[in-house]
Amino acid sequence: MANMTRRRTVELPDHPDFLWVADQKPKKSYDVIIIGAGGHGLATAYYLAKNHGITNVAVIEKGWLAGGNMGRNTTIIRSNYLWDESAGIYDHSLKLWENLEEEVGYEMFFSQRGVMTLAHSVSDVRSKQRNFYANHVNAVDSVWLTPEEVKEIAPIVNISEDIRYPVMGATFQPRGGIAKHDWVAWGYAKAAADLGVDIIQNCEVTGFKIVDGKVQGIKTTQGDIAANKVGMVAAGHTSVLANMAGFDVPLQSRPLQALVSELNEQVLDTVIMSGAVHVYVSQAHKGELVMGAGTDSYNSYAQRGGFHVIEHQLAAACELFPIFERAHMLRTWGGIVDIAPDASPIIGLTPVENLFINSGWGTGGFKATPGSGWVMAATIANGEPDALAKPYALDRFISGHLIDEHGAAGVAH
Amino acid sequence: MTVNLEFAKSPLGGAKHGGLDKAVLIQEVPFTPGFDLRVNPDSSGFAAVNQALGLTLNPKVGTVVRNNAACIVGDELPAAGGISALCLGPDWWYLTGTADIQALLKPVQEAHHISLVDVSSQRTKIEVYGPNAKDVLAHYWEQDLRDEHFPIDACSQGVLAKAPLIMWHCCENCYLLFPRASFANHLWTALTDAAVEYL
Amino acid sequence: MSTVTFTFDGKQYSGEKGESLASALLRNGVLHFTDSSYKDRPRGVMGLWVEETNALVNVDSGAGEPLKPATTIEIVEGLVVRSAQGVGDLPDTRDNSRYDKANRHVDVLVVGAGTSGLEAAKKFSDLGKSVIVIDDKPTAGGHLVYLGQPVPADLLSVLDRENVTYLPRTTVQGLYDQGYSVATERRTDHLDVNVHTEMSRIRTWHIRAEHTVLATGAFQRHLVFANNDRPGIMLSHAAATYVSNGANPFKTAVVVTVDNQGYRDAIRLHKAGVHVAAVVDIRKKVSKSSKKSSRKAVEKLGIRLIKGATVIDTQANLDGLLSSVTIVDAKSDLQETIKTDLLAVSGGWTPIVHLATFIGIKPTWSVKRAAFIVKHKDSLTSTTGMLAGDFGDDDEAAIFFGPKLSTEQALVAFVDYQRDATYRDFKRAIDAGMRSIEHVKRYTAIGTAHDQGKTSGTVTMGLIGQAIGKAPDEIGSLTFRPPYISIPFAALAGRDRGLLSDPERTTPIHSWHRASGAPMEDVGQWKRPWYFPMPGESMHAAVLRECAAVREGVGVMDASTLGKIDIQGKDAGQFLDLIYTNMFSTLKVGMSRYGLMCGIDGMVFDDGVTTRISENHWLMTTTTGGAAKVLDWLEEWLQTEWPHLEVYCTSVTEQISTVAIVGPKSRELMKRLAPSLDVSNEAFAFMENKHADVAGVPARIARISFSGELAYEINVPAIYGLHIWESVMAKGADLNITPYGTESMHVLRAEKGFVIVGQETDGTQTPDDLDMNWIVSKKKDDFIGKRSFSRADTARDGRHQLVGILADDGSYVIPEGAYIVAGADEKTAPPVKHIGYITSSYDSAALGRSFALALVANGLARKGEKIAIPMADRVVTGVITDSVFVDKENTRRDG
């Protein structure tokens, strides 16, 4: 084996010896109950304890902690959405990200390696440049790249004219990047648990106790639990919960698929998204490519989608990144993205007093984890929407003040 | 309407690939007349249309009814006055043939609520013929091509190589494709490429 | 059997053509295959097929491929591979192989051509059903092939039947709802090292079956004990098979087992000439019947049998290869060390449940088999063979995953070989509070390598159960996901590469545009000429020239891509009144009118000119990009809300080709093209339509203008589109007829303040916002969107409104999309409060300077106000103006 050197992958750090109490049972009552132990729910519980000193809190999870969208995620972090309101909440979130590992005391492999969004036609360039200028006036870091500059940052991108939709430019957010989703969830969970929060897994909400229009507690498969305030942070299942509480929310839940490759030599050190050629990709620390595209076109809670979505994004990937031709697709999975009519979240009050909602994050969830938890905690603690959350009120669908991020959500990320 | 051959140009210029005696023949049949007919089978217009055309439209989606429109092979010319009606929807047919369909249905248009639109240029016609015709199509077509499920005179709309088209199983080992004209070039490239392992 | 030469890690070896790379290397005595991913521990081949955890290679020859298990490569002459340490190569060279896909519909799909699969195929074929039999191996017969036994002729011959299609070397990667499955067939790798282009290398089959029989069989799993990963430690069935085929670098073997498979493999090892020093069985007693079979047979052969014991540790020689094993008695804890160079491990059969789990069928734990099985039968799917728990005459396997380990032993007891994840890692996860297998997996990385936990999955479930005192099926379900094994990206991309990756939609005039050298713009899937530069001319200069020609002479544009919908029926007028914001039912026959369409939210979503061809016959045009969406919209309302209206809609986007001749000299050109037509203003007024022969072809000519100039849109059946264009070019030559593209079209309409849906609008503008109140009928009772105009946010003050912007520096073209702040604002350094943004911005030949359109809060009341535009490197100043810049009185349109 004299002159053969083999490529090696990187070691990942050990997790802490202790995370949380296994099989924790719920108490009879709490000050606050958060339904949903995904990233947002756990972050909410953490900030309730940390920012507001509210520790008599339980996070109730139907399955295993962070086993929903947080457990099956392509983990792109950015804040370069179009509207001012979005810049507000997503960039607040990004600022929290920048300090999160230290604050929570957990390695998350948060890597600010930049997020690039390619433009492939005249109209694509136009709308992305508008996004770029919108970011500029909101002081969200954004750079416009020519195709040559794209190639300099990411040599594997095919910027030649001989693909169907050549690259005509790109926006780039240098502060954007990725993090390891499970570790983010566990970091928040452990930190919240250390502050006194109970995390109850395998406990499904079956109903609400509502008296005179005010929530008093929840009914679950592990018994009734009383609470002064309840927050619904259950992504796609929030609409199911809302129905239990007697009202509707305009959410549609669609499958969103993603895939990983086997471990490969490092060829990509930034995140690249393309709407026209319909794929987005990053390469994680160990070396796997993490890829996704758009949602399937029907509503479903099945956490799986059609195979053609996978085929299309692999074809797109091979066109834009020919070096991926030989990479092995290793695993596909699907999540449930909950989408409101304007592709923006629904945060704040509901028709039931002391019942709060934070859902509809669609494809924007992971990146918003810290910011979402922060504003939801403030909203619950103060009993009224945090300033950053105000535009996302449920009643905007009546007034018409929508915050339409379908374009900036682009290829679903 | 007769085609002014001096000035007309079909999307594929009558291109041919493969051969009659080969595994597959793929060719454009240029300037094929085509009409989109809309008429409610429960309306008075339905009987009037049938009478004018000399056939009985079948409102079952996916069926084809013909009058004097047998398939031809090679350099044969089709019989005059022929009509084929492909049912694309409960009140929707695609009519094609050598008959002057416009003239035949003009009086019906005037008296009944029907819609007849000349779409001869909207689509073109591509023939895929031969013992490997199914194989070539099956590289892209996701619908069931087995004869027991898509017999002669079955038709279907769908997408083949991302090109929207109507497919008609017109006779043994022969399929007629009617893609939208702007997709014709792309479809041609896809079909001739799919034929690589058979020719 | 022919011999082939291949290269492994730079050294040449030979083997038998068609044998696996793993077998060939063992045949050559190569035991130390590679080193482990993190801990650099020597590793060797451990399995037979895709369950292989250690022996991965990067293939350099042929098409090249990263991280292929050596057990799944059939060696061919000239094969070149390098051992991998968990990471695959991605060379920068293109893979020129051909990849394709094929669709098939069939009555029955049988997955697995082992005995039970062949029996199922025979059964359905006998019934006259069409059958596809798929197997991932080169030869049919399943385990019989490994055992070297012939497949019964009556079963094998099923594969040759007329109604049976047999696909070997084909892996069913995914099973989806409604009998849909996806399989990848390897077609050329086993032939030679050439890169084939005349035949696809991998074909992806999309199969739709009325019924799917899963006969996927099982593979063995390992046991967890200290130093269970040394080269020389293999799954027993694999060891026995390699050795029986002559790939035998071993002298001595110890077999450790939890079931009778260990005995059968001990007998094969013995028959192949290996000295079996002992069979170590964790079971003290086995059921009576098996006493007649393999355990008895082993004893008869004089092989030492150690009952109620298992392996707890192993030792290596100086080369890191297995040299001895330590046995421990389960009761007494007494230990014994036995010298051996092969440890064959029978940890239990693990049925291949993946495909069933993909469609939500949950495996059940069989205590008897110590395995997760899938016993299932419904109209869509059924299981058979080992998958369904039919293990032949095997008796109860012990539910055992490994002995109790000390802390030191746990550090080197591997659960997932490829991830170097040990029992210590596993225990830490449990102690940290993890209980779900999904949590354990994510904490330890167990099951996340190329093999996706094929062997380690069940082992981990068992270990969790042992750790917290639950049965394996009480732990939860291990989630498997497609694909069953990894696939190259390019294989699934298939032929959707290059120009085939998405259609280029072209107009009938496309060949002329291409030949002229005009750069094309992608407008959705359409290719439209962007501008027509003279040789050496820049885009900027070309556009100025084109626009000047249109306003001073005559230009020609291909408008064929616009959406066109034929609308007929006595209620068509009424229908259009409901669809558009303005009135259409009063439009005279032969006239055209521009209309605006809103969604139910009152926001503009499309526009276009609609013509009344005759009393009950209309032709609607839409934007190029909106054609399909608008037709869907019309049909939705007609079919679901207003089925009582007698209206039919038909797409004619491609039926009609439209050539627009535009400019003061267009009248002259029109006269030449249609000598029979009276083109005087009195005879042919603005927005009127005439039918006439144009260049010898019947046409409908409309006086519609998107530029404000005199213009004629010539509409013909698309087969004559090119002829009209060429005639225009010929007859207009001495008028300096100037073809112009989408860029100039954009400039010309912007100079007139005409909006482009999708550019001045983003789905949040009402007609009022666009300063188009004039197009909202005050006479109509109702139309789509009207109700929403009075919504709180839609009726409020301060909405963004369409205005013009002139930069103080007329030579500077403000970038489209730039955001605007009130000029009175001192602050321009971000973050700043903006008042709107630029929607369109161009350099104008007519104005001799730049201009822009913008959406500005309360813009209509702010004309004359100063604004500033903060850019990265400068602040641009300007003023808010009216949105019409050229020909404000609309006098040019009559020429």
Q: What is the assembly state of the chains in this entry?
A: heterotrimer
Query: What characteristic shape of chain A results from the CA principal axes?
Result: globular
Total count of strands of chain A: 18
Greatest interface and its participating residue counts? A-C, 88 and 99 residues
Question: What would you give as the CATH superfamily of the largest domain in chain B?
Answer: Probable tRNA modification gtpase trme, domain 1
The CATH homologous superfamily of the largest domain in chain A corresponds to FAD/NAD(P)-binding domain
Distance between the termini of chain B: 38 Å
Please explain how this structure is put together.
- The complex is a heterotrimer of chains A (413), B (199) and C (895).
- With 413 residues, chain A is α/β, with parallel strands linked by helices.
- Chain A is built from 10 helices and 18 strands.
- In chain A, α1 packs parallel to α5 and α1 packs across α8.
- Chain B is of the alpha+beta class.
- Chain B has 2 domains: 95 residues, Probable tRNA modification gtpase trme, domain 1 (Gyrase A, domain 2); 89 residues, Heterotetrameric sarcosine oxidase (Alpha-Beta Plaits, 2-Layer Sandwich).
- Chain B has 4 helices and 11 strands.
- In chain B, β9 and β10 form a beta hairpin.
- Chain C is α+β, with helices and mostly antiparallel strands and 895 residues long.
- Among the domains of chain C are: 81 residues, Ubiquitin-like (UB roll) (Roll); 124 residues, FAD/NAD(P)-binding domain, CATH 3.50.50.60; 79 residues, Arc Repressor Mutant, subunit A (Orthogonal Bundle); 137 residues, Probable tRNA modification gtpase trme, domain 1 (Gyrase A, domain 2, 2-Layer Sandwich), CATH 3.30.1360.120; 89 residues, 2-Layer Sandwich (Alpha-Beta Plaits); 98 residues, Elongation Factor Tu (Ef-tu), domain 3 (Beta Barrel), CATH 2.40.30.
- The N and C termini of chain C lie far apart (88 Å).
- Classes of the chains: A alpha/beta (413), B alpha+beta (199), C alpha+beta (895).
- Chains A and C meet through α3, β12, α7, β16 and α9 of A and β3, β6, α11, α12 and β29 of C.
